[in-house]
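Dear U.,

For the methods section draft, I wanted the exact inputs and outputs in one place so we can describe them consistently. I've listed the two proteins in the order they'll appear in the manuscript figures. Please don't edit the token lines directly; just add comments below if something needs changing.

First protein:
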Amino acid sequence: MVKKFKICAIFEGLFLLILLFIAMPLKYISSFSQMVQLVGMAHKLLFLLYIVLALILYYELKWSFKILGIIMFASVIPFGAIYVDKKHLTQ
């Protein structure tokens, strides 16, 4: 389950970066809003999957509520997935 969470976290973080640094500037610079819709939908689905997998790992690995909060907060920060992987998922 940890491996699935890592993969999901990487893709969720990648789509967040694409959304923030490519799709949003394209929307406001060249009025190309379709990319925001596509990348935004993918990011939403991956974000929900990230949350569900984090809750599953919370019970499986017996994390404290503080660690769960840090992992949830890291999902909304660019490059937060890297921090989670290095700090809390490295065995």
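Second protein (the one for the lower panel):
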Amino acid sequence: MRLGTRIFFCYLLIFAVCFSSPFNWILHNLRTRYLEGVEDPLVDQATILAAIAGLQMEDGTFEPEQWYKIFDRVHETPLSAKIYKLVKDQVDIRIYITDAAGSLVFDSASRDSIGEDYSQWRDVHLTLRGEYGARATRSDPEDPDSSILYVAAPIRVDEAIAGVLTVAKPTANIKYFVKYARPQFIAIGLLYLTAAGLLSFLVSVLLTLPIKRLTRYANAIRDGRRPRFPRLDRSEIGEMGKAFREMQEALEGKRYVERYVQNLTHEIKSPLSAIRGAAELMKEPMDEEQRERFLTNIHSEAFRIQQIIDRMLELAALENRQTLHRVETVPVSPLVKTVLESKAPFVSRKQLQVMADVPEDLTVRGDSFLLHQAVSNLVQNAVDFSPGGGEILLTARSDGKGIILTVSDEGPGIPAFAREKVFDKFYSLQRPDTGRKSTGLGLNFVREVAVLHDGEVRLENQEGRGAVAVLRIG
């Protein structure tokens, strides 16, 4: 399982564990919370009504029949109250009053129960003792939704408890409120859980994004490309990326030095041997013509060593670049014209015909100096392998992202055994007209320039017409 997926599911698990317990507790205690909300106003109602009854008893004006008339009027009065989605059409509160002994003296629900002993009911019993009295009793023992909530208050006459007034409220409506609130509560819970899931996914993406960038960077290095070092955060991942880059640079630097020392030693060995041999022979007596020939050979091989060293210094500087130091918009047509002008002496010497097909408005983003050097190497290569009087065709066009530049000649083409090696350092084929080899660094230089410009270069044979070099930039 990928790291981002693991982080995502870990966050979901944490949310589920931490959220499910309080969510379930609230769902299971939702009815209790509603009961608490009902009990609070019942306490106020019982206390107010008990005070009214106490004042009437002190004045000697307490008449149960008067209270019956009040409730008869209440029950006869039409009622239509819309409480959110619940429509209330009748008053369902019941009030009963007992004396100091707990005997019933008034009951709004019925006159038939007057005189019954209510002293054993919890609300009456506790209130007569001066405590808070309340109870919940089911009218149907088998139906949990048939509970009636009773809240009592003491009736005081001359500071003494003269009786108890109890307000009773059925809880049937609470069932409706709970039924209505539960799906809403679940929907809100699911909404927040979904939001938590989306945020978890976003966090997992943000946490793993630097790792993915670092992985792409490592894969690009493995494939021989030179990617820009990715933008990382300042966390441990950023520190790891910095350490990775430093390790990569150290390893590449070590391998780079070892490889260059080996290559340079190998390539210089041959001209040095020729110089040494010529110098030893010149110690012997010889005529002036022969001595001149050996001196020419020494100068030629020394010049070859100088060329190898200069080219390797240029290539070393290029290979050590991770990115372009200077990027500008380069007009392609003037660049090609400048390259062809610099090659005019070589073209004229072999009586070659060079044609260029480059749009005047064609541009590319890059380093103009490096691009000039790369195109120059490709044109020089075409000149070296073209037969006298041959034709070289140079074209350039846009591919939507950058440009594709081609240089084709009428030479012998690339032998099958050399196709995989032509871009290697120091690998060179004999020039048809001289039989000599070059330093073998030109095409390798072109490839390095192409890589720095996020492009590529390839060399192919044309059917019936020499070779073609294809350079893509951008």
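Candidate sentences for the figure legend, describing the second protein: The chain has a mean pLDDT of 79. The longest helix spans residues 172-222.

Thanks,
Y.
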